[in-house]
Amino acid sequence: MEPRTGIAARKAAIDLLDAVLTRKASLDTALVTTPRFNALTGPDRSFARLIASTTLRRLGEIDAAIDKLLRKPIANSALTVRQTLRVGAAQLMFLETPPHAAVDTAVASLNGSRFAGFSGLANAILRRISPDSRMPIEVAARANTPRWLLKSWAQAFGEANALAIAIAHGSEAPIDITPKTEVALISETLGGQTLPTGSIRLDAPRNVRQLPGFDAGAWWIQDAAAALPARLIPNPGGKHILDLCAAPGGKSAQLASCGARMTSIDRSAERLETLQQNFKRLGLRSNIVHADIENWNPAELADAVLLDAPCSATGTIRRHPDIPHLKQLEDVRRMAKIQSRLIASAARMVRPGGHLIYAVCSMQPEEGARVINKFLLANTGFSRDPLQEDDHSIPSDFRTKNGDIQTLPCHWPELGGLDGFFAARLVRHAAS
After folding, report:
1. What local confidence, expressed as pLDDT, does residue 432 receive?
2. pLDDT band at 58, cuts 50/70/90?
3. In Å, how far are 1, 280, 402 from 358, measured between CA atoms?
4. Strand partners of residue 241
5. Which domains does the chain have, with CATH numbers?
6. Three-state DSSP class for 404?
């Protein structure tokens, strides 16, 4: 990409970084609300997004390479200069951008701004950065991961797994899909790989809307780990099942495709519209309810209730590299309080003898097992219904000592990993 045609994409990437790192907006929000990004089309738009996501994913490593070459720190009043250097360094270190393009566009973007006096500095710094500026893999993983997250994962899963998780976050997540039926045929048609849990993994980035079977509603996008909680409901066909916090509807679709009588509830009208559109494409049915589950009661108690609770989403960092820059330990603790309220609300909707499934796309124990343990202490009418050794639907590596599910991004390294997810199955005692 030539400098004169690439400046707009680089400036848009800088704006995206500012939105995330300075204004603490999520990258998804920034992609919708950033004018310079939304003015881009085609390859420039894709390139700007790639630069921003790569910079966020590798920020510790990038900053270390820049700081090593600076004689003195860049003032906070010149944050745009820092972002410009980050954008240039990301291209030079990880994106195989021709050096002249990365350097010249950085200099040109500063020359056209009130930071023109820093163009010489940018030129000098960026000309000394290359793929050789990368850190060794393990050192880079630590540099790119906040200390509190590494400490948390080490305490929960051991030092080796914590480091393996951080290393896994250095790569983008693959695209997984859940087929309604005909797993082998759909996998072959799409040129994908059938995973041990029945999901299909695509071998390269695709425009999924253009793939065979999308318009026909033969499958939907869903990470392999996200597809596991719904499988904790035994024999869902014919059962009345509530899916709480249901949008965009992947788990509802799984259960509906098995013949369950579904009710899908979410407090976001916008997200429910997406769920409704997905169900229309898939040719599936669910009673869709716009409600806050803390203030809603079903007309009849359900055979099973699935609560995929809002959380810190640390299990999805591969897909959302902004999360380490937005979340703090305080956020985890705050979400745990919300989750405790939500599971208490979900519990009152389960019939005696029915199941309650709790799930979060988080690797933080405060949001997973600790929520369950706290709930069970306060609700003696429920108990764990743990996975059994002879239940081969869930790989043994994903099972905790309590019979819950805990997946990690470092699982299945030979297959490309998966999201971090926790899920537990509880049963309401018949006499309660």
Report:
1. 52
2. very high
3. 48, 27, 14
4. 262, 304
5. 3-134 (1.10.940.10), 138-168 (no CATH), 176-428 (3.40.50.150)
6. coil
